[in-house]
Amino acid sequence: MTKEQFRELLQYCDPIPEPNGHRYVYEKDLLAFLCKLRQGLCDDFLRVLFNYQSRQAVSLAVATILKITTLQCYETSSKQMQQGQRQLDTAEANDSRLVTKSRWIIEARNSHIKSIFKFFKNTISVVHAINLRAFYLIAGAIINRYRDVILMDGATAELAEQMLQKARSENTLRLRVETEHLARRNAMWNRLNENQILDFPRLDIDFLKELTVGIYQIRLAPAYIQDKLVRDESEVFELDEHRNEANFLKVWVYSRFRNATKHQLWIAYRPHGDENNEPITVITVLVYQVHKHWVHVLMLQVFSFLGYARHQPNTKYPSVTLLNHIKDAANRYNQDEEIEGEVIEPF
Fold first, then answer.
1. I need a surface site. Which of 170, 213, 245, 261 has the fewest CB within 10 A?
2. In the chain, where are the structural domains located?
3. What was the pLDDT predicted at 98?
4. What DSSP state is assigned to residue 81?
5. What's the superkingdom here (predicted)?
């Protein structure tokens, strides 16, 4: 959010009538509200960060702006984990990711600041903590004056509406997986490999970009495919097909984080060449029911490989030379023991 956008948003925060006058909204109130909405920060932390008198004052400021946004017909959403809850459900996850899908500029700017000002890149001494806000303001002023503005290409209202429609559309395959308890029924699947799935729809790069609303996940997909092959100790991509239903697949994939957790992914598709060929339907379950930007990179790795990458003449995968070198280290002999040192006689 730019300074102009923030000021424009502040103009919408009209005073709220009260029995003894009006309740006004100030800049720090709006900042506290945005931080709580975006980061889910607790009121005690916001009280210290924005120098409020009490935690109740923070709650009042947030409630005031929330009331204003409701009167202005704005929809706000701040998803927080409940006690004992390990993950958000699909609908809540999609709502929360609608904001983060367009927030790459925040991470980009943070990295940009560290690349320009080495002071922020390294560990900052605690003695500078009290002046850290002033340092960032100075850095921001220099960047705003002498650097180009970072813009998001294609970030339009039409794209936002498209994201909303996709995120809130019903996934019939998810309902089937949950109703038939397919996550626990392993006997109804036959193990196949990529060479036996010849009718999977051919996808082009434009379709994948439209599916992911970007290219970040597409760039990560080859690394995930390679990681799956390495962990499966296989040279071909393996998957399962339903015994009684063609074109219904189940794939085990790995997360490159959280200790390489395995996930089940189901795909129902129309065969290649079908006149009514439609976009494939996907659902991930088990550990992650969170759909990162509603098309998680774990899903995209299967799409891009079966429908795109394996049909390309040259598909580049990350090098595994360093990984193999590390794995082989335990099997090597101690070279120092094999070298017979020269004995030097004393004078």
1. 170
2. 3-146, 170-325
3. 61
4. P
5. Eukaryota
